[in-house]
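Journal club side-thread
Mid-discussion, someone asked how the predicted structure for our own chain would compare to the paper's figures. Pasting it here so we can look after the session.
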Amino acid sequence: MDQTPLNVSDAIALINQTLDYAYPVIVVEGEVSSFKVNQGKFVFFDLKDESGTLGCFMMVYALRIPIEDGMHVRVIAQPKLTQWGKVSLTVREVHPLGEGSLKRSFELLLAKLDKEGLFAIERKRPLPAMPRTIGVISSTQAAGYGDFIKILNQRWGGVDIIVAHTSVQGSGAPQQIIAALHHFNQMAELPDVIAIVRGGGSLDDLSAFNDEPLVRAIAASRVPVITGIGHEVDTSLADLAADVRAATPSNAAQLLVPDRGEMSRMVVRDTAQMIDSLTRRLSGVRRDVMTRQKAAFEGLSRRHAHVTRRIDTLGTVLYQLNPRLALTRGYALLKNAAGQIITEAKKGDEVKIETKTSMITATVTSTTKNNERIT
């Protein structure tokens, strides 16, 4: 067959063009070996099984979860023929397979991020006591989302809920959730809290919440984040990075808003306690006023009795000093012609002498000095 020959470069280009057309993306599963990172940017490893090995290459930013030799993974990649004539997979995504590999990847990333302080207690923020606006990141078709909204409305209601619908499992879920986080953090009026909720699932189903960029986005959120992912026994790295981890989506709703029935009972109880306290205080004030009033009355009574006795004493003294009382004992009052009481007179003065029964008018014919003195 007559055919124009190709040089090596053209042949490689033709083969790659054919591969691009026939297999733009392939999914391959195998065991990781010879894993290494060059210059902090390029990732190389082999993917192998019992009978074959494929070389793999990817950029370090595309490696969203840690891997190491011996882990079983699934890669989404594009096959390429290298200039050295070897087939290589240009990897877009890597996903651990099997419980062992998933747990090991979790442990590796946990240790890395914990060392950076992303899970430190001191960086956690409290949830708002009474949020007015809640940003919710979830799949609106998921049962966990339905439970969250139902409990939220049953407990309180009236909260403004902004929902960002995203996938909550699969390879595209982490990036969608990150985009939703960025959206809520860039709003002109920030929500009071962001809730990331998803119902239960297998370890593989929940692996999207162990994605490194997603965990970092949660830790970097300007708005407090609560997660309600899976069941109570499930703990993801997203949970550890969040400000508050709820056991389930329903529990997240319980932690976010108070129960209106409980609040009503609390108001009734507090009102009754307040009335009781005020009643006791009023009774105490009344008793204090009555005690003070009684003490004041008793003090005034004692003062009145003292003043009364004093007045009686002074009255007795005044009575004894009444000159007319002396008249009854045989004494007389000496007055001048004008009727004023005098204590002495001279010869020739007209005087009036008042006794108990009479007023005598007389003229002084003589006077003598009385040497007796009263001291």
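Post-session note: The chain has a mean pLDDT of 88.
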